[in-house]
Design brief:
alpha+beta; Immunoglobulin-like; 4 domains; six-stranded mixed sheet; five-stranded mixed sheet; 8 helices; disordered N terminus
Amino acid sequence: MEDRNHYCETCAGLLRYSQYQMGTILATISSYMRQPTRFQPAAEPRPTSPSKGSCMRCIVLSLLLFTVAALQGSPLAQTGTYFNPRDDQFKLLGLKRGLDAYNIARADYERQKELFEKGLSSRADLERAERTYRDAEVNYQQSFLAVIYERRYIAIERAIKAQRADGTRRVKLTLANMTSGTSDIKRLLNIEEGLYALVQPDIINDIYVSLMNDQGAIISQPYEIKVEALKVGEPATIDFNLLQDVDVATVRLIFAQNQDQKKIYFQKDASANRVAIVAEQFSQEAPLASTATFRLRMELFSSAENTFRLEVVNLPLQLNTYFQDPQTQARITQLKYTEGVNTKNVSLNVLLPTRANEELKIDQPIKFYVLAVPQGSDIRVDRSKTITDEQVRGWSVGFTRLELVPRGIGQFLIRAQQLYYEINPGQNVTMTLDVVNEGSRWLDNVRIDADVPLNWTKVIEPNTIDRLDPTTERRIAFTFTPPQEVGVGKYDIRIRVTGRSDNQPLEAEPRTATIQVVPTANILGTAVVVLLIIGLVVGIVVFGIRLARR
């Protein structure tokens, strides 16, 4: 009888090969589950086919070997990663899963490589293990990059708006890399030092920064600034010039194929301790006897003072001024900033007199200043004195320089003693008109004309006036002659006066002269009629007397 503990040569070879394959699968499962096992794969033997005279054990071991091979080719024995829908939501757990799969695939590849070098494994097994290892490595690195890029964040620490000496606005923007937890990821997941140093998760490279308004237009100069590298704990400060004066802007950040936009409110540079005054129109022209309005935008750059006194210097005393709130129309002399309000709008109204003089000349610009003096300042303004530019700048107060150009305008006044005349045929009409300049500016190229009826003639002396100064007048003589065959009736003559003032055309209100042509009286007929009437009256009287005597 054959010994039960005795195996033939074929049985022994099949048994050793099946033990090796089973140990490999158990080791793989143990590594994946992070649990130790007492099964260790032995050196891979060469499988032997059962010979013709193999025993029953050979057949059983062959079936076991095929089962092990099937298990080895099953998904359980694969070292690749398994897709989990929640890996996109929980990227850190996905990274942990990818790291485990990577470690398993690497261990299997190294084991297959060692066995191949000893001649105990085939090249196909080595290539399969290497392919699985490379796939797991790529998946692991992708998961690592996804976690790193997801945790990257750039914060805006400060955005300080200031005004330069030349009046331009600038913004100093401070950016900070707020990426956190990268060192914890490295420690908890035991990430390779080489991969960590290559990726540099604590540094964000190639950041493009720009400022935009509400319409999406870039208002910064330069339009974009590139930050080469932004490291954790090392903020970067960049300086922009503002092409548009705004208090609220959108900061656009482009980095690592990401784009982030943050709408922020600029802080004010409190170190200046002054109010920046900006005029919508710093130079204006206004006619005499009118009001010039300057709209001012006052922006606070101070942390110590919030109340300022408004003053005007270098303006002639005959020009009255007052400040006004555009919303309430209330007159103000001081300006107070409340919490959270750093910009106010104010209107300066300048009232011009009706006549020019030595101090106020037509077309001569008047340059003056508007000051915002802190309430606690000792600066006192005397409008009767002229303040130089150096003095204004030396006061270290907010100011703006304005310009007012007084303009005059001519105005016609036509005076006539009589505008109605009666003539007989063959007679002419002589009349006069006084042309007066009631405006504040001289009149140039004054022309006088009349629209006469058909076949009438006119003589105007003078018909042109080169210059007519304010408050002066000129008398104009007119002679109108009707034709010989003029008919009896009423004729209207329209008199027009035109001119120019400050290159603007002006026209006086037209005047109309009425001429009544009456027929020539018949003296003989009139005398006969009168005599007849007298004779009739005398006859009646005589007849009455005689009748009374009877």
